[in-house]
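Help!! Second protein's tokens look totally different from the first
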Amino acid sequence: MASAEEFPALALRSSVGVELWKKAGTGFPYVPYEKFTRDESKYCRVLEYSPDGRFLAWGNGGKVQLCRTSDWEVVASLPRPKAFYLKFSPRGRYLMTWEIFCTNKDNPEGSPNLYVYATETGEEVYSAVQKKQVEWEPGWSSDESIFAIMLGGEVFFFEVNGPDGFKSSTRKLGGGRNGCVSLAPNNGQPYLAFYVPGTKGSPSMCKIYQYPTLSPTQAISSKSFFQADKVEMMWNKRGTGLLLLTSTDVDQSNASYYGKQALHFMSTKGDSFAVQLSKEGPIHAVAWSPKSTEFIVVYGFMPSKATLFNLKCDAVFEFGESSRNSIYFNDFGNLVLLAGFGNLRGNVECWQMGKERKCISSLQAPDSTLLEWNPNGEIFMTATTAPRLRQSNGFKVWHYSGALLHETMWPAEQELLQVAWQKFQPGFFKEKSVSAEKVVGIQSAQPKASTQVYRPPAARGLPMKVFDLYSDNVQKSTIPGLPPGMMAKNEKKKKQQQQKLQKRPEQQKTEERKEQSSDGTATNNSDQVIQDKDVVDKKRQYSMRITTGDPQKDRKIKNIQKKLYDITKLKVKKFNGEPLKDTQLAKIDSEASLIEELQKLTVS
């Protein structure tokens, strides 16, 4: 391992500011670093390291601070109090900021909301109106000589080292429809992928070009596909292979709540394949190995499958089925973590890649909202952060053998928002062989989650075989104000409900609506009436049309509203005791993240 001074630092963003933590000596733990002046603003909303590790930038609600990591001194303060996102160019020479686009009666056209600054001087070199919040980032060639930005359906290319620099574009690509562009990280003349969504009757299209040859007839490779409202483009590290994860917002066949997904492969040699997956269900994660010769896909209904593919899209290794939805390669590609977060239990498996391909350790990191490998490739960090989770915030550092090396629980009155490893120049750390030796770690101070089955108070203390929710063996309590005989009547209804659970859901629902009690009230109690009213209210609420002026954003809002309405109906079914599938329970668990996404889209 590197010395304490060379060992990557952790930048932390919280509800009380930005601070830096480093190792105190050759071992652990991590402690606040006295050479970094803590920013104590309560409105720090974004933090980002440059890819080469030379700079750290954050927005504190008043300005964007640009810090040099060699001495941790602030070298520039940029006048962007509303900065929402930050992004560095590949070599850290430029910093891009994006903020929410706004108009008012005094400025109906709005002002630029995307800015580019030179990191060495803090000088503003470019600005534009970029209304898109998703895929807002401009593209760069790996040597930063080409800057590309998509505006109004066209891609504008700037040769920043040329005589015009950022003043005027030298080439354009596109034709008036929404789409996206992605530049490959290859050396030399950059490759780029240009995607245009299809219209009624025509398919979506993705083409690979090599700059500056951008004629539609001179594309190196092309791929067309139907049922693709959007696409996520992922280049391998060498910039020779491209994965396209296509998806629709709604699956017309109703086979999937998440919409229809497909995975395609394209190469700069002209190859084009559809990646064949052997299990039905959503595609949870896709990740290239840093070695650029293989990739992993996690897919299918839970327990999901994980499969390793080569550049011909042949399945070369199966990791088996488990509750997973995430993939994390270290920087060298010799280790990969397969994990299950979000609505899953937080199991993490560490697999050795190469010829061995074996699971070398496993651990539990429940309630983790982020995971990131240390650049040295041997340890990684997990964290529980707000706003995804506002309780038990903190971070942990692990060795790949499964040992817990460090743990910090954040104060309960504060919120931990982000944790990020310091980055370094490529080649600073060398790949080390994977050892089977188990590293000695520490014991977590957090209590382990109980694995016992929940039992209601009335059943506690009784033998498990005696307890039955509808059994007379459970002692019955007297409810004050309940008419005589009503308890027995309710017990009878409960038994009838249990019998109905064995019937088809459609038949059960019909019978429950028809059945009336002796006093003329429906069998379903007032709680059911409240639940039905809630569904009606939610339907009315989610049918209200929110217009932002951005058609793409409006479609997203409408789709999220539909999903939230569907979740409300599922919650009613769960309340009524109807059995739900794992996928339906997963939808209910996604409600908080959908509401958060809806709030971001509707911010004006």
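Here's the second one for comparison:
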Amino acid sequence: MSIDPAAELPFFYGSISRSDAEQHLKLAGMADGLFLLRQCLRSLGGYVLSVVWNLEFHHYSIEKQLNGTYCITGGKTHCGPAELCEYYSKDPDGLVCTLRKPCLRSPDTPIRPGVFDNLRENMLREYVRQTWNLEGEAMEQAIISQAPQLEKLIATTAHEKMPWYHGKISRQEGERRLYCGVQPDGKFLVRDREEAGTFALSMMYGKTVYHYQVLHDKSGKYSMPEGTKFDTIWQLVEYLKMKADGLVTVLTEACNNGKAAAAEKPHLPSNRRPGGNGYTPPPRAVTTPANSVPADRTPLPMDCDGFNPYHNPNEVRKFNIKRTQLLIDEVELGSGNFGCVKKGVFKTETGQVDVAIKVLKNDNENLVKEEMMREAEIMYQLSNPYIVRMLGLCNAENLMLVMEMASAGPLNKFLSSNKDRITVENIVELMHQVSLGMKYLEEKNFVHRDLAARNVLLVNQRFAKISDFGLSKALGADDNYYKARTSGKWPLKWYAPECIRFYKFSSKSDVWSFGVTMWEAFSYGGKPYKKMKGMEVTRFIDDGNRMECPPACPERMYTLMKECWTYKYEERPDFKKVEESMRSYHYSLSSKAKPEEAEAEAEAEAAAAAEPVK
């Protein structure tokens, strides 16, 4: 279960109401600057800071920016609620006063969990498992890389787990259910209206049933007419239990739908199928058409079949592939000293899969066969959505390494050819995926040694995979670096100082290469260090110089680049830290609302309010 970042704070009370917060502050003495933190009902993952000043209560909403950063409206962002409170204890910066004294929870006052807290983790995993047929490490990486969209997606369907949600029933049936049994004021249920995607709240008061339309604006917020707006239906209901907000009374008792919550499964969009033994791979691994993605969200990388095109990897990944199972196209995807990479089709019992086939030149066989076998052995051990999957080897007229297809090609070429349509946010998302793949390698004790934009392949514009493991090394369990015996034909412009000087390679040297790869990406495929030769680059770095910030690169991303280029490897961040930084910035960009949504919101509210409740 995910742990609330505020859970360790002794002044955090969880999901309590405003009146409960004020009562705690009263009992603690009402001193100026006395404060506590509680969960916010209005925004997902947000908080409310309740402060006493001059014997009055002041409440400040703290919004989560979907990135691990938090801010009070109009204030500075902070990496966590603890850091935010520490900041305001030194500087009021818009508050009525500094935070002077925490209102500590008593030992017999536990943190009150929110209604969604106990559902989130299981719903999230079950949704990813069923929708994209992912398990294990692939599931974990998918959840991390797309957390903002996924959590919002899950939260918006959490009401289907609630006992008060009755689904698509008529107004008359809603009344019948409310009249059954006891009829206290505030007894309620939520039902679907005839218009798809809209809801009505039906409630009892004075032995009469009242019906209210739940407004849903174009920015995705739910509210009662003229009422407070919420991210989800269940947040709105929880709020209406504390405040009438335009209703005849507050909500009290749920009219139970009779379903056992544990038996309910998370909502899957109607145009998606759960995975399982009945799943059949598509005839070819192609991008899922846009119309197969739910209309209420942006397509995710997992919506592409290339994310996990093989239902059962063991059915497809056979280390020894028969030549009769391969159809090889004459189209070359790339070439090098080893030979070339060709487009092909791998025939399996359940269908055909597009693949990339690395074909070894026969005249070079004795020189590079051993290297190619080593690459195959390394790739065969790796299973991560952001690393090119190796399917097997075929030893026929040539030695061939069969890999999954990433049809959009190398990152540097793709960016240089599509400068006009690739946004900075798009690049951040791709580089976050690369950092996830590299963090996975770090955790598995693999050193890549050749990370560069040319070796990041794209399945599509929003889905990247790391490739080319020819120089990679698996470290021993007790080793944290690999030391080469001699230098070789190395990509020096991507190498850290310790690689060039001492032939010493580790995940920290891969971090340096990641910084150079970031520079390439934000330069839209530019060549690092311009026309400098290898040893000129070494002197340039030794003198304390670093490449300048690319024109389109955000300052925070350039700051991370420079951290990756820390001269002493022991002071350089690891990929765990790098991925966290990429994730934070990626999520912060994902959370920004589209300008047109704000403009349309008022019109949507007016139109919705004018409709009669059915």
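Reply: Different proteins will give different token patterns, so don't panic. Residues 424-443 form the longest helix (20 residues).
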